[in-house]
Backbone:
RNA sequence: GGCGGUAUCGUCUAGGGGCCUAGGACACAGCCCUCUCAAGGCUGGAACACGGGUUCGAAUCCCGUUACCGCUACCA
């Protein structure tokens, strides 16, 4: 029997990494065990919900490739059913009308606190006579609908990650299910929708553990079959506290813009609260689906470590083909003003080769863009440290570079020929290869670090390489004179 | 305060009574490779929260303590 799962975010911000992780596990479960993965937008809090946030959730899900089955369900569209379910509870005597105002409740809560008592709703409205209730309703007195918790029992379920969890009902207050403005409270809306959507496995953050007994009671009162529950551990910031704005990037969109690959994000998120065992870490999406198991879910909250995410991204960057990377790198180059669309299309192979050179030494797309700069700009800037270190002795630098230029000018422009030629030159000059290549590297890129020097020469091309060496020589002479 | 959950290197984790002088990964340090930087390889430091049980034997099971987290709204 295939399970039906859902991811049910409220559109009050962006798609949070915690939410993304929850969505991922639901999705992986559906993919691995065979099931349906649905999406429900919980927009009942009209004050905080925005279309922009809903859009951000879709964008995030799309970027990550977390596709859902069936149409998106908007909780707000189910108001009538929620109200009907609340009425049903009333009719079945599972709930009662409560005329206490928020102010009164608040006051009683404060009083209890002052006495160091635990506040409990005292059920005074449940003791109202039938006549009194009718009188108040007729008089149009605002009231909520409160669920009457059967307090002589306890509620237990077998959680997929935690095993048996039991709550004594006496510790659970009679809770409101329908506000005085006739809108539903979260627990009712969730249960009503999950029943309607025929959800059979509720997998969500473990901050919902204490909501679960209330929801189970609602299922029972409504006469619906219970789903199974799986409560996933939370994700915390580096200080061990709940992930929030203070921790920097927490929205998946942030990572997209930081140059993280979706498959790396997924891989990293998958390892927060799950492990395939066998020391496996770097996985493709297909690997994750194949390996996913409910047996290896962790109970412990995990701390989000951006450093490991970057490393993971570096791994995926290295593994990805240049063809796979080009569609994401090209727009980044364009945004940085380094290459136009037309440029990339016209010299596709050249760009592919450049990506192959850079991806292995980059951890993010941004790294690649940064490192690609010398190959895409007409002129380069000399890094001051590079100049200080590699062109310390200007005279010999000029001599070296001039000799290289002469050699290269007559060399065949391919890797093997250039390498042979320059190594021979180093020999002739009685110097080491490094002593020759480093100053040349600065002349070609302005930097001390780059791909192999012959790859750089080849990528830059004969004309541009020779021009850069020429420019470096001129620069050094000018500095000499000054 | 009440209730619930969790507890292995700084971090992510393996581990589900003997295979553990606790394994892998990130980060950190060193070495190797090397034209630089990465990548890769090797090495190192680094953990079973504490206290009681159960058992021939516990990181693994039970109880308590502590710490952390969550819930305790006419928020979701």
Residues:
């Amino acid at each position: 029997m295939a399970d039906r799962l859902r991811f049910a975010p409220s559109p009050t911000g962006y798609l949070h990494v915690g939410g993304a992780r929850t969505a991922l596990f639901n999705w992986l479960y559906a993919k691995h065990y065979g099931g349906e993965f649905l999406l429900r937008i919980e927009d009942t809090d009209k004050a905080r919900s925005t279309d922009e946030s809903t859009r951000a959730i879709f964008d995030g899900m799309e970027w990550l490739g977390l596709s859902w089955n069936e149409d998106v369900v908007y909780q707000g569209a189910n108001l009538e059913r929620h109200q009907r379910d609340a009425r049903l509870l009333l009719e079945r005597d599972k709930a009662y009308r409560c005329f206490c105002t928020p102010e009164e409740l608040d006051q009683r809560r404060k009083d209890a606190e002052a006495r160091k008592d635990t506040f409990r709703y005292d059920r005074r409205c449940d003791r109202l006579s039938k006549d009194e209730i009718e009188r108040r309703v007729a008089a149009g007195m605002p009231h909520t609908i409160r669920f009457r918790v059967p307090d002589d029992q306890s509620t237990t379920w077998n959680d997929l990650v935690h095993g048996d969890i039991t709550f004594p009902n006496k510790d659970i207050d009679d809770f409101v299910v329908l506000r005085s403005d006739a809108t539903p409270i979260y627990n009712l809306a969730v249960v009503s929708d999950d029943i309607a959507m025929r959800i059979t496995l509720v997998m969500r953050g473990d901050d919902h553990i204490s909501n679960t007994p209330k929801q189970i009671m609602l299922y029972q009162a409504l006469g619906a079959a219970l789903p199974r529950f799986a409560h996933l551990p939370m994700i915390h910031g580096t200080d061990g506290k709940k992930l929030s704005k203070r921790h920097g990037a927490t929205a998946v969109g942030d990572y997209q813009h930081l140059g993280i690959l979706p498959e790396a994000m997924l891989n990293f998120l998958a390892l927060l609260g799950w492990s395939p065992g066998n020391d496996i870490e770097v996985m493709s999406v297909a690997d994750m689906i194949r390996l996913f198991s409910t047996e290896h879910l962790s109970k412990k909250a995990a701390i989000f470590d951006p450093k490991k995410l970057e490393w993971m991204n570096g791994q995926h960057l290295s593994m990805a083909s240049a063809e796979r990377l080009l569609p994401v790198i090209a727009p980044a180059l364009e945004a940085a003003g380094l290459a136009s669309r037309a440029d990339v299309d016209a010299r596709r192979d050249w760009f592919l080769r450049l990506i192959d050179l850079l991806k292995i030494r980059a951890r993010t797309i941004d790294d690649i863009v940064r490192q690609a700069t010398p190959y895409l700009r007409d002129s380069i800037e000399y890094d001051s440290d590079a100049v200080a270190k590699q062109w310390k002795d200007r005279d010999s630098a000029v001599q070296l570079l001039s000799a290289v230029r002469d050699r290269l000018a007559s060399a065949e422009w391919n890797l093997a020929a250039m390498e042979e030629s320059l190594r021979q030159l180093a020999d002739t000059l009685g110097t080491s290869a490094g002593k020759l290549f480093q100053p040349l590297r600065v002349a070609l890129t302005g930097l001390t670090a780059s791909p192999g020097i012959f790859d750089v020469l080849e990528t830059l091309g004969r004309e541009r390489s020779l021009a850069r060496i020429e420019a470096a020589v001129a620069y050094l002479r000018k500095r000499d004179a000054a």
The longest strand of chain A covers residues 35-41. Chain A has a mean pLDDT of 93. The CA atoms of residues 8 and 348 of chain A lie 42 Å apart. Chain A has 21 helices and twelve strands.
